[in-house]
Amino acid sequence: MALKLIILGCGTSSGVPRIGNDWGDCDPNESKNRRSRVSIIVESSTTRILVDTSPDLRFQFLACGIDSIDHVIWTHDHADHCHGIDDLRQVFQKKREPIPAYARDFALDSLKRRFKYAFEGHKYYPSICDGHILENVTEFGDIRVKTVDQPHGGITSAGLRFEHDGKSISYATDFGEVTDGMRNIFSNSDVFVVDALREKPHPTHAHLAMTLEFINAVKPGLSLLTHMDKSMDYNHLCSILPKDIRPAYDGYVIEI
Questions:
Q1: Closest among 38, 73, 34, 72 to 55, alpha carbons compared
Q2: What's the CA gap between 31 and 42, in Å, rounded?
Q3: Whole-angstrom distance, CA of residue 195 vs CA of residue 210
Q4: Is there a smaller number of Cβ atoms within 10 Å at the N or the C end of the chain?
Q5: Listing from the earlier edge strand, what are the strands of the sheet with 167-172?
Q6: Helix, strand or coil, per DSSP, at residue 216
Q7: pLDDT digit string (tens) for 80-117?
Q8: In this structure, are residues 197 and 206 in contact, taking their beta carbons and an 8 Å threshold?
Q9: For residue 192, what are the β-bridge partners?
Q10: Whose CA is closest to 231, among 16, 21, 86, 41?
Q11: In angstroms, how far is CA 79 from the centroid of its own chain?
């Protein structure tokens, strides 16, 4: 195995269905329309990296049989990407040492303020995360991660490219425009997991037409749409998309 990707969650910040059993245009009888908040795992035979601690992290780990990680990366500090941080306590209990945890400097500062106990511990509980700045290129065991800052409203999110043994998986979620830096770093990935919130344009997220144009520019082998809302029905998307562009679904696994 060179690289393995697990889609833990591929939904927008409200998930699908929304509270109130609101499925929107998604068929509730299609299990692949049930989406938890976005998070992925990328791993080699020796290294497992979690990207984002979604509020659904406990459920996601249980559903996918995950009980340990070696590193965690946060793309940014929005609630749907970090509010599951406390579920890392159970990973710590098995590991018995703080989990190496990475984010861009401004995001890490925010996380340390909001979840001080997780990074510093206190009298009765040890810290569960060991915070580090995510550099433009960072080595995580035998996986190299390249990072680019993506415009996301008034902040930036971290776009990530994972490389190991000649294979690559790229992850671009939560961006509202595409930069030259993004095109460069994501070019010719074997697998490209990319934001496609909905078909209608949105001020801080990619809509489907923008995403398809982006995919055409970077020419990946396989593209998987993520961060999809209740308007993005799985089977409808499969019927209109090329075979090398698929909607992701929770629990999707691919090895390259």
A1: 38
A2: 23
A3: 10
A4: N
A5: 137-140, 143-152, 155-164, 167-172, 191-195, 222-226, 245-247
A6: helix
A7: 999 999 999 999 988 889 999 999 999 999 999 999 99
A8: yes
A9: 170, 223
A10: 16
A11: 13
Specify burial of residue 204 (Cβ count, 10 A radius: 0-12, 13-18, 19+): middle
In angstroms, rounded to a whole number, what is the distance separating the alpha carbons of residues 175 and 151? Answer: 5
Length of the chain: 256
Query: Which tokens belong to 247?
Result: 């909607």
Contact 104, 82 (CB under 8 A): no
pTM summary value: 0.97
Token pair listed for 126: 């040890």
**Quick check: 54 and 77 in contact, CB under 8 A?**
no
Q: To 10 degrees, the CA torsion angle through 59, 65, 67, 69?
A: -100
Q: Residue 141 is encoded by which pair of tokens?
A: 């065991």
Tokens of residue 95, six digits: 């590991």
